């Protein structure tokens, strides 16, 4: 059993900042990558930012220069620092991780999701 728990969402004014946290726990052999997706009402879920175990990062064009993904994958944590927030950043933000588990000596990789945390940017 693997769990991803997010925290840090909330209501912020345009131009403000928020920091999201994600912690993974459970039967984890290794983590290949951790990242953040978001889904606004009526829209598809989209990748916001990702961090791999090798330290590389990837960002959606819409958040480059404003958001920073960081974390300590061996410690099973990831963060998303969001600055200069805009109303269009309003969405439910989901932590995502590619996690390997061992079952009877065989390694299996799955993609896991957190429960989501609401971020609302409004004056």
Which key terms come to mind for this protein?
mainly beta, 7-stranded mixed beta sheet, single chain, 4-stranded antiparallel beta sheet, 123 residues
Describe the structure.
- With 123 residues, this protein is an all-beta fold.
- Helix content is 0%, strand content 62%.
- It has no helices and eleven strands.
- The protein has strands spanning 2-7, 10-12, 18-26, 30-39, 46-52, 57-59, 67-72, 77-82, 91-103, 106-113, 117-121.
- The strands form two sheets. Strands 2, 4, 5, 6, 9, 10 and 11 form a seven-stranded mixed β-sheet that branches.
- Strand 5 and strand 6 (57-59) form a beta hairpin.
- The radius of gyration is 15 Å and the shape is elongated.
- The model has no long low-confidence stretch (mean pLDDT 96).
């Amino acid at each position: 059993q693997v769990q991803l728990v997010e925290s840090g969402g909330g209501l912020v004014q345009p131009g403000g900042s928020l920091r999201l946290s994600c912690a993974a726990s459970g039967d984890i052999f290794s983590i290949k990558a951790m990242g953040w997706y978001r889904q606004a009402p009526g829209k598809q879920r989209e990748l916001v930012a990702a961090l791999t175990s090798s330290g590389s990062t990837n960002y959606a064009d819409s958040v480059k220069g404003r958001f920073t993904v960081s974390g300590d994958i061996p410690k099973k944590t990831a963060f998303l620092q969001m600055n200069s927030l805009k109303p269009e950043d309003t969405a439910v933000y989901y932590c995502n991780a590619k996690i390997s588990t061992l079952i009877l000596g065989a390694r299996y990789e799955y993609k896991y999701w957190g429960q989501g945390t609401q971020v609302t940017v409004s004056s």
